Amino acid sequence: MAVDKIIFYLCVTLITISIIFSLSLPVFTVLFFNYEEYHFFIRQFAVGCIGVFLMWWLSRLNPDKALVWIGFGLFGLCIIAMGLMHALPASMVTDAGGARRWIRLPGFSLAPVEFFKIGFVYFLAWSFTRKIDDSKKSLKDELKLLLPYICVFLIVVYLIAVLQNDLGQVIVLALTFVTMALFAGASAKIFSIGILGAAFIMTIAIVSSEHRILRIKSWWGTIQGMVLSLLPDSVADVLRVADAPEPYQISHSLNAIKHGEFFGEGLGAGIFKLGFLSEVHTDFVLAGIAEEIGVFGILCIVAILLTLLYRIFRISARSENKVYHLFSLGIGLIISFSFLMNSYGITSITPIKGIAVPFLSYGGSSILAICIGIGMVLMVSKRANL
Fold it and tell me: What stretches pass through the bilayer (predicted)?
C-alpha cells in the first residue's frame, strides 16, 4: 500500500513556514546578542531539511520490523538520558531558570523530553494492546490493570516536572495517556478518574512551586477584571488578587495579535518582536506570526494543521493492527494538545506553559522529534486501509 503523501507535504509546508519566520521574528535577539544576521535562519533551515529527510526515510521502512525498535529505542534511551542529566557536568548541560532540560552536544543542544514523548506514545500503544481490551471489567480490576502504568507515569512526572521543572510537558503526556487508555478499551469511569488524578498531580505541582504560583497569579491578573465583573461583589472581593504581578508578556502577546488585525502588518514588519515579546520565535511564535500575516494567516496555518490531524486520525481509525491504531492516535493527540496549550496560553485563556508549537516554534529537538513521529505514522499508513 502507498504512503499518505499528503501528510508529508503538509508537514513540509509547516516546516517551510517556520524557516521563513526564523528569519523574521528573532531580529531583536540577533541584534541584542550580536549574533550573525542569519544565525537562527541557518539553524532552522538545516534542522528542517534533516527533519524532512527523516520523515521520508522512515516512511520507506517496514513498520512490522522497524516500528518496535524505533519506539522502544526512543523510550528507553530518553528516559535514561533524562535520569542522568543531573549527574552530567555543567559543561554538558544547558541550564535555563535552574532547570536542566538540554544536553549540550557539539554544535547543538538536545532536549530528550521531546523525543521521549514519541517513545512514550509507542510504549503505551504496544502495552495497552497486550493488557487492555473491550471486555467488561469491574472498576477494581481496571485499576489493578492500570496501576503499573500509573507507577511508570509517576516516574515520568518526577523526571520532567520535578527535575526539569517542566509541568507543561507532563500535562500533554497526561492528557495523551488517559485518552489513549480510553480508546484502548478502558471504561469512561477510569477515564474520569485519570483526568481527576492528573488534575490533582498538577495542583500539587503548582502549589509546591513559587514560580508556578506566580505564573497562575499573573494569568489570573490578566483575566480577573473580565471574569469578576460577571460575579456578585461579595464573591468578586474574595476571588480578586490585589498583588498579581503585571502580565507583560501576555499583554504584549494580545497586543501583537490585535495589531496584526486580519491581514497583518506584512512579513518582517512586526514591531512587538522588537524587544516587547521575549522568545517570540519559540513560545510566542503564534503571536509574532499573527502580527505579521494577521488572523487570515493564522487561519490558514490552523487549516493546514486540522487537515494534517484529520489524516493522522484517519490512519488511526483505518488501521487493523491495534498498536498502529493507538500509536497514530497518540501522535495526533500530542500535536493537538501541544498546539492548543500554546495557543490558549498566548491568548490568556490558560496560563503560559512554555510548550513549543509543533513544526512552527524555533528549536531543533521539537522539530526533529515530531518529524520522527510523523515518519513513523507515514510508515504505518502503508498498512492502513485508506
Answer: 7-35, 41-59, 66-88, 108-125, 145-161, 167-183, 190-209, 293-313, 325-347, 359-380
Could you give the maximum distance between any two Cα atoms of the chain, in Å?
A: 65
Residue 386 belongs to some domain of the structure: no
| Domain interval for residue 323 | 3-380
Amino acid at 18: S
Secondary structure class of 108 (helix, strand, coil): strand
Residue 110 region by backbone torsions, left for phi larger than 0, else alpha for psi between -120 and 50, else beta: beta
Q: Name the DSSP class of 356.
A: P
Alpha-carbon gap, residue 94 to 164, rounded angstroms: 11
Could you tell me if residue 385 is inside a domain? no
Residue whose C-alpha cell reads 526539569 in the numeric block: 164
Residue closest to 319 by CA, chosen among 334, 331, 307, 305: 331
pLDDT digits (tens, 9 = 90+) for 82-116: 888 877 777 777 766 556 777 877 777 788 999 99
- pTM, rounded to two decimals: 0.90
Tracing cell 507515569 back to the chain, one arrives at: 153
Q: Which of 13, 12, 40 is nearest to 25 (CA)?
A: 40
Question: Is the confidence at residue 346, as pLDDT, over 80?
Answer: yes
CA pair distance 352, 366, nearest whole angstrom: 18
CB 84 within 8 Å of CB 159: no
Residue 11, domain member (yes or no): yes
Helix, strand, coil shares, percent, the chain, to 5: 70, 5, 25
Contact indicator for 324, 63 with CB cutoff of 8 Å: yes
Provide the angle, in degrees to the nearest 10, between the axes of the packed helices 364-381 and 63-84: 160
DSSP summary character for residue 357: P
Query: Where does residue 153 rank: exposed (0-12), middle (13-18), buried (19+ CB within 10 A)?
Result: buried
Gap between the Cα atoms of 191 and 151, Å rounded: 17
Looking at the structure of the chain, the number of domains it has is 1
Give the distance, in angstroms, between the CA of residue 270 and the centroid of all CA atoms in the same chain. 25
201 domain residue, yes or no = yes
**Separation CA 48–CA 93 (nearest Å):** 24
